[in-house]
Every structure is written in structure tokens, then in C-alpha cells.
Amino acid sequence: MNExxxxxxxxxxxxxxxxxxxxxxxxxxxxxxxLLFSKKLSxxxxxxxxxxxxxxxxxxxxSFKDRGMTLAVSKAKEIGSKTIICASTGNTSxxxxxxxxxxxxKCVVLIPKGAIAMGxxxxxxxxxxxxxxxxxxxxxxxxxxxxxxxxxxMTLVNSLNPFRIEGQKTGAFEICDQLEEAPDFHxxxxxxxxxxxxxxxxxxxxxxxxxIESLPRMIGFQAAGAAPIVHxxxxxxxxxxxxxxxxxxPASWKGALAARDExxxxxxxxxxxxxxxAYRLVAETDGLFVEPASAASIAGLLKLARKKYFRKxxxxxxxxxxxxxxxxxKDPDRAIQTIPKPKVIPPKMEAVxxxxxxx
Length: 359
Ligand code: AN7
Known about the structure:
15% strand; alpha/beta; single chain; binds ligand AN7; six-stranded mixed sheet; 359 residues; four-stranded parallel sheet
């Protein structure tokens, strides 16, 4: 076996993680995702800006959730847990189902009925999880699984499980390794707020160990119809086309505030229209197909650029990382609803040429 190949985030960052020689590592060799320089977005933001896209869609289940799930499931297996359980807007359940399958642990997932993307539902089903559609939203489903995990021997693998955050922080390590320093600004979508909490923890630990000298400003974006942190109050009926972040009462609310305030960053919101515009832009100009929630990072980048936010902070070249949390193939319906359907033509050369011209 080639020893230089990537072994997944637990082995690659073992000294930063709560594992020991007895921990059975359950991995799909997650992590090592692309950090792509975007020339077009950099030019759009202005002089001296360098925009990088951390594309988490290249994780094995197609989202950032694999980083935390490898550790949560490994630790569940270590204590002999027979069942893992979570509530999910889709990506957590896809990851839990896949890692559960690999570990040989039963997986139960609760999803808000009719409100998760098709690809994510398909993943949970095909990996053999017990999938229950709750007649309610994500926040209600999370309340139920919390109660069950307190009373019954099932391991909760939502980001309330601290091992999820521990594994997830490896995203920050990778960005620093790839850039050879921390970025100046770190932009990401915020839903349940586990990811922003984890990234901030990761950056701080990397600095403590002398791997980086500075820390980024942490900047999070919620969807306008699901922006409890921005409005400073829970939203009872959150609404957004970005179903992944349709969350009205984030579990890691405090972690998000700490990341924002300790780093001198901010948490803002973007409208569904801005999300869709950014979703199309990054696909059309950078060749990256992301899911709508992920496009909130790009929508936010453009919003702040319009307000000259980055310019104001400009002392030298400004390095901005936008995390693109999930793959666009998770939610094919959204792409098809957004772009006009293909024109139907007869199988004739003339018809093709005519159709191309009229475009
Ligand atoms: C693509 O899967 O909450 O702020 O249950 O799937 O850490 O919640 C997903 C969240 C961003 C927000 N982007 O991250 C779930 C779930 C995508 C996501 C978020 C999610 P957090």
C-alpha cells in the first residue's frame, strides 16, 4: 500500500483529535478536498483580493459532514454503541447512514417531511438507514432525537455530539495547510451552526500549535427567511429554498456568536434570490456545481463586496476563503427548476444548427 496516500481526517490529524490506539477508525478517506483559486471572483471583489473556494462537495458523501461523522461514528463504535440517531436537513443523515453502514451500526434518521433534497434522501435510503419523515420542521425533529438519545441507548450524531465538532475542525487545518497560512476572511453558510463553531476551534488550535500566525475573521451567512442569529431570536417557521439551512433555532448558537465576536467577524443573511444568483454564477463561471445552501457563501461574498467591506479592511493582499459545503448533485431539482428545460428538436443537422443560432 502506498503510504503517501490520503488516509482520511482522523489519521491525517490524529494528534489534534480525541482518539487513542484503541479507537476503531471508521473512515471513507474523507477530507483532502479542493481549495480552488477563483480568478473571476477575485477580479469581481477588487484589487488585491484573492478568493479561494473550499469545495467540500468532493467528500465521499458529497458534503462537509463526513469530517465530523468519521469521528462521531468511530467513537460510537469504540464504546460499543449499536445504534446512531440524528435529525437532519439531509446531509447529516446521508453521512450518518454511510458511516453507520461502514461501521456496521444501525442508523436512524429523522427528516422534516418533504423538505430535504432528493439526492440526500436517496443516500440515507440506499445505505440502509431507518428513515422517518417527521410532520414538522428540523428544529422539532432535533428536539425529538435529543430526548430519545437521553433516555435510550442510542448515540446522537448531530453536532451536539462534541466529536462531530472535533472532526469537523479539520476543515480549518486543511485550509491553512493548503494556503500555508490562515486566510484573512473565512466565509460560510450557517444553519445549525456546528460548522462555524468547528472551523473557529480549528483555526485557534492551529495557531496555538504554531502552525499559523494569524486568525481569520469568521463570517457566516444565514438565509433571510431562516436567520435567527441575525435577528437575535428563534424563528418558528423558517423558510428558504436552501433546505439544508432551513433551521430556526441553531443548536450551536453560542458557538457561532463566539466565532463571530472573538474573530471580529459578522453573521449576516442573504435572500433566496441572491442565493440562486450565486448558485448559477459559481456554476457558470467557475465550473463548480454546489447546492443552494453552499451558494450562500458566494452570495454573502458579493453582498459584502458591494458594501466595500473587504476594501475597508484592506492593508495588503486580502485572502478570502469561501466554504462550499455540499455538492450540487444533492439537489438536482433545484437546478432543473432554475434553468429552462432543453428544447426538443428533430434528429436533423439543420434543426441543431437552427437551434444553436437562435440561442
Ligand atoms: C450544505 O444536514 O444541518 O451550520 O442536518 O447541509 O453546521 O448546520 C446541514 C447543514 C451548510 C449548515 N451547508 O451547517 C443537516 C444540516 C450545507 C448543509 C449547512 C448544512 P451548520
